[in-house]
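Anyone else keep sequences and structure tokens together like this?

Example one:
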Amino acid sequence: MPLFRLDSDQLTTLPVTNFAQEGVSERYDLQRLLREQIDVLLPDALVLTDEFADWDDSRRRIDLLALDTEARLVVIELKRTTNDGQLDLQAIRYAAMASTMTFDQAVAAYAKYSGSTSTEAEQVLLDFLDWDGPQEEFFGQEVRIVLVAPDFHKEVTTSVIWLNQRDLDITCVRIRPHRQGDELILDVQRIIPLPEAGDFLVRAKDKSRGVRRATRGGGWIDGEGYWFVNVGESPTNSRCWEDCQRYGFMQAGGGPKWIRQISRLQPGDKIMAYLSRHGYVGVGEVVSEAVMQRDFVSPVKSKRLLELPLEKAPMKEHLHDPDRCDWCIGVNWVAVVPREEALRLKARRQTVCKLHDHALVEGILSHFTPPEVIHGSTPKRP
């Protein structure tokens, strides 16, 4: 769609131009500006380096290499023209090469890029990830791809859509320059996936994984679909593990970042509940999508949570604010333990994130559940 200038008596089209005609270079202009303002392309991201080429036997360079708040690496490829029909394939090669990057290598890359010491660079990454210390086993388990160009060939968009349906995470961002007198206006639009469809596609993808797991006949150990969820209990909020296990729920909130995390969980997802300063306290299956705490109905009591006797009363200050209140998911607990009997194993620092460490998952499940539950069907509530 064209851009228009709104005048008093008409809409005037802003003519589309191109970067070559405007003397805008790919590396020294576009890449430099987007590197300094990465949120234009990708909110909640940290640029680790540019022109990354620390490979064995290869001279290929990643335009921008970033990190997101879930410790996933992000390969960003920029083109100022639309005549590259191999953009997706090139980015996939880079993503495969980047997938072996360790936390220490990321620290070294960021230190070189930012001109800081290794100690300073490590602290920046830890602060960004909200980690107390390096967690190598959780770093870079997934690699996202962001393709940026004035437009995309049909074979590229078709390939991207097909690959996203098969659990890759590729985003296409269209950047088009428009001329308005002496000013150059940049129109930035995410076209795949459409912003409005983003949450739906995440849910659809998670559902698709669940269907594939059911088709394979897998039990609780099937290699995927496990989530770490932090109870989030603290003296300054209304969260309480005893309430969660008694009434069949988990909750998170206090801001859009944490609400987005818990909203990713869908019915059928399997969760491992973690209580800070104690350990893992329960395993269960999600039975209802996230809703505002004021609207949540306990799957155990079939009553609104706010009507039930709670160990910790809800905080009324943000109860009706969808961007600040807590959101709750219903959980069918397979097994729970008191906080004093928590399983002390490694934890993630995010509120909600996927678990990719199969040994960790098996260790938790073997502690909490009998063999017939692990390898059989989902049990009823104990």
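And example two:
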Amino acid sequence: KISPSVGVIGSRRPTNYGKEAAYKFSKRLAEAGVVVVSGLARGIDTIAHKVCLEVEGKTIAILGSGLDVVYPPENKPLFDKISDGYGAVVSEFPFGTSPRKENFPIRNRLISGFSEAILVVEAGKKSGTLITAKWALNQGKEVFAVPGSIFSPQSEGTHFLIKSGAQPVFSPEELLEFLGVQEKDKIPNLFDFGQAEATQEKLTKEEKEVLSFLSSYPIHLEDLLLQTDLPASEVLSAITELEFKGIVQVLPGNFIKLKG
């Protein structure tokens, strides 16, 4: 039996929300045996490929350059590992082709072509991700989009897709159901905040504010300090209390993430 495949695409500059959604969707799909297809670009693409490797799933990277020109260059280790038995790296461009801007819309039709469905995690209103979604519709593929904040520019593209007929998706299980993949190890709906709200009732105002900027994807302390309106001393105190309560985890290098 041929494994089903889903193209996971999105912004090169995702928010923490987008990073977490890309991680959770890609992880669940890979664990269920779904091949995750993406473009090896920075941001959502990189997260999608990496999490597949973490769970020993399969992934396909479609390049906008020749196979001997890895772009972005920092993804060379990722390129090598995918090539080394964890999937495939594909390009229709000749060796020596540099990653020119005009190559990527062409590349995008292959991402949708290799996929049974497309999942758009985050996209701005002028994102190249929308080109992939258009290719998918022209090829008769289903397009799914993760809803985001109405205040986030990174969700303007996904909301446009939903208004245009894309299916809003709230958990990986919905994609698995569409693909006909049998459910196993069902995970909670990403938008089920009941438990989080119950936990937050026991937190101070400062702890709640700090927590609102955290996700399962690590954020550096300096970035967190820039995003909050709290004095540095209050942020540090809140992190200490949240860590003590078992809600957050402080990682080496001053990175912080939600625990679990």
